[in-house]
Amino acid sequence: MSKHIHILGVCGTFMGGIAAIAKELGYRVSGSDANVYPPMSTQLQELGIELKSGYLPEHFADEPDLVIVGNAMSRGNPMVEYVLERNIPYTSGPQWLQDNVLQQRWVLAVSGTHGKTTTSSMLAWILEYAKLTPGFLIGGVPQNFQQSARLGNSPFFVIEADEYDTAFFDKRSKFVHYRPRTLVINNLEFDHADIFDSISDIQRQFHHLVRMVPGNGLILAPAQETYIDEMLALGLWTPTEFSRTAKAWQANNIHRDGSAFEVLFNGEKQGEVHWDLLGDFNVDNALMAIGAARHAGVPVTVSCEALASFVNTKRRQELLGTPKDIHVYDDFAHHPTAISKTLSAMRSHIGSNRLIAVLEPRSNTMKAGVHKDTLAQAFHDADRVFIFEDSAFDWSVSDVCQQIDKRASAHHSIEELLNSVVNYAQPGDHIVVMSNGGFAGFHTKLLNKLTD
C-alpha cells in the first residue's frame, strides 16, 4: 500500500501544489484546511485527493505516515497539537519538496518582492514551448498550463521562491530549501512586516539563498538596485547577469504600454517580443525569464516566440468582463510599488479613458500600517480611488485619502463600497480591483451589479 501523506493547509496554492506533486509520485494524499473551497478544492478533488474541512483531530482517524505542515499553521491548532503529542512524523512543504523532488533536479528559482508568480509562469512556459517539459510549482494558476504544479519529466524544475517563513518550527525563508542552479532576483523591498523587522532581515535571508547557488550556476538581477547590490556585496560566488544594462540584458524600443519590445544581450539585438501583457515591469519580468531560460539552453529567439503565446497568470491584470462597456480587471497588487506599476501600465494602455482603482489593503504589512505614508502616491495614475477600510486597522485609510485629494474615498462596508463604485462608473471606464485575497467576492458582485 502506498505511503499516506496528510497536508495541513492543503487549499493554499503552494500546499495544493505539493499535494498534486505527491499524488503524481504515487503517494496516497489527503488534506485539511479551515475552508475547503474552489478553485483549489476542485483541482485537488479531480486528482483524487481526499479533502477534509476544518482542523479536527478526528481527521487523523486513519493515521498518516507523514504530515506536511503549511506555514499558516501555528501552535494551538488542534491537528498540530495532535501530531506533536503522538509523535507523528511531520515536515514542512519546502523541506518535503527538497527531499523528494528537487534533490536531483536543475532548479530554476524565481525570487523577489514583486513579479515572482508572473516570471516563474513565463519561465515554465518558455521551457515547455522549447519542449523541455519542466516540472514546476507556482503560487498561482499559470493559464498556459491550467494547473499550479506538476512533477515534469525532465531535469528542469521551475519554482516560485518565496521569502516568507517555512513553518511554525522552521522560521527560515521557504526558498532556502530549494538550492537553485539558476536564481532570479526580480527586486527587493521591505514587505512581510509580520515576520521581518527591517530590510536588512530580508537581505540576510536572500543572502542565505545566494550562498547556495553553485559556481556553475547563474544569478540574474536588475542592475543598480540598492538593496540587491548591498545584499550581493555580502559575498558572491556565482556568475551574475544583470538587466537594464548594456553589459547583459536590455529591452529596447519598448511600446508605450509594454506590449512590444526588442531584447538585447551585451548590446546586440537577439529578438523581439510581441505579446498581450502590459507595463514596463512585465518587460523586466520577461528579461529575467529569457535570461534564465538561456541558462537552461533555450535560444533567445525561441523564448521570444514562446512569450508571444504566453497568457498571464490569473489575477494579474485579468480582464473579468466588460458589462455596459465598463472594463473590470482583477489584480493581485497589494504593495504600493505593485499598485503604482499596475495603474501606470493600465494608464499607458487605455490613454485618456477614466481609470478607477479599488483597493482592499489586506496583507499583514498593509494592515500594520507599514505603507500608510507611501500608499497615496501609488494612485498617481488613477482618476478615482476607492479604498476599503477594515475595522481592525490601527491606522486611518481616510488620512491616506486626504493625501490623494478629492479623487479618493474610504469605505467601511463591502455593500457601501460596491454601491459607490457602481454609481460612479460609466461606459468607457476601466476599473482595476486590487487585493491579495478574495475581497468578500467583490469582483463577482461588481460584475453582477454593473450588468443589472
UniProtKB/TrEMBL annotation:
<keyword id="KW-0132">Cell division</keyword>
<dbReference type="GO" id="GO:0071555">
    <property type="term" value="P:cell wall organization"/>
</dbReference>
<dbReference type="InterPro" id="IPR013221">
    <property type="entry name" value="Mur_ligase_cen"/>
</dbReference>
<dbReference type="InterPro" id="IPR050061">
    <property type="entry name" value="MurCDEF_pg_biosynth"/>
</dbReference>
<dbReference type="InterPro" id="IPR004101">
    <property type="entry name" value="Mur_ligase_C"/>
</dbReference>
<comment type="pathway">
    <text>Cell wall biogenesis; peptidoglycan recycling.</text>
</comment>
<feature type="domain" description="Mur ligase N-terminal catalytic">
    <location>
        <begin position="4"/>
        <end position="101"/>
    </location>
</feature>
<dbReference type="GO" id="GO:0009254">
    <property type="term" value="P:peptidoglycan turnover"/>
</dbReference>
<dbReference type="GO" id="GO:0051301">
    <property type="term" value="P:cell division"/>
</dbReference>
<dbReference type="Pfam" id="PF02875">
    <property type="entry name" value="Mur_ligase_C"/>
</dbReference>
<keyword id="KW-0573">Peptidoglycan synthesis</keyword>
<comment type="function">
    <text>Reutilizes the intact tripeptide L-alanyl-gamma-D-glutamyl-meso-diaminopimelate by linking it to UDP-N-acetylmuramate.</text>
</comment>
<protein>
    <recommendedName>
        <fullName>UDP-N-acetylmuramate--L-alanyl-gamma-D-glutamyl-meso-2,6-diaminoheptandioate ligase</fullName>
        <ecNumber>6.3.2.45</ecNumber>
    </recommendedName>
</protein>
<dbReference type="InterPro" id="IPR000713">
    <property type="entry name" value="Mur_ligase_N"/>
</dbReference>
<keyword id="KW-0131">Cell cycle</keyword>
<dbReference type="InterPro" id="IPR005757">
    <property type="entry name" value="Mpl"/>
</dbReference>
<dbReference type="GO" id="GO:0008360">
    <property type="term" value="P:regulation of cell shape"/>
</dbReference>
<dbReference type="Pfam" id="PF01225">
    <property type="entry name" value="Mur_ligase"/>
</dbReference>
<dbReference type="InterPro" id="IPR036565">
    <property type="entry name" value="Mur-like_cat_sf"/>
</dbReference>
<dbReference type="GO" id="GO:0009252">
    <property type="term" value="P:peptidoglycan biosynthetic process"/>
</dbReference>
<keyword id="KW-0436">Ligase</keyword>
<keyword id="KW-0133">Cell shape</keyword>
<dbReference type="InterPro" id="IPR036615">
    <property type="entry name" value="Mur_ligase_C_dom_sf"/>
</dbReference>
<keyword id="KW-0460">Magnesium</keyword>
<keyword id="KW-0067">ATP-binding</keyword>
<keyword id="KW-0961">Cell wall biogenesis/degradation</keyword>
<dbReference type="GO" id="GO:0005524">
    <property type="term" value="F:ATP binding"/>
</dbReference>
<comment type="similarity">
    <text>Belongs to the MurCDEF family. Mpl subfamily.</text>
</comment>
<dbReference type="Pfam" id="PF08245">
    <property type="entry name" value="Mur_ligase_M"/>
</dbReference>
<dbReference type="GO" id="GO:0106418">
    <property type="term" value="F:UDP-N-acetylmuramate-L-alanyl-gamma-D-glutamyl-meso-2,6-diaminoheptanedioate ligase activity"/>
</dbReference>
<keyword id="KW-0547">Nucleotide-binding</keyword>
<feature type="domain" description="Mur ligase C-terminal">
    <location>
        <begin position="315"/>
        <end position="437"/>
    </location>
</feature>
<feature type="domain" description="Mur ligase central">
    <location>
        <begin position="110"/>
        <end position="293"/>
    </location>
</feature>
<feature type="binding site">
    <location>
        <begin position="112"/>
        <end position="118"/>
    </location>
    <ligand>
        <name>ATP</name>
    </ligand>
</feature>
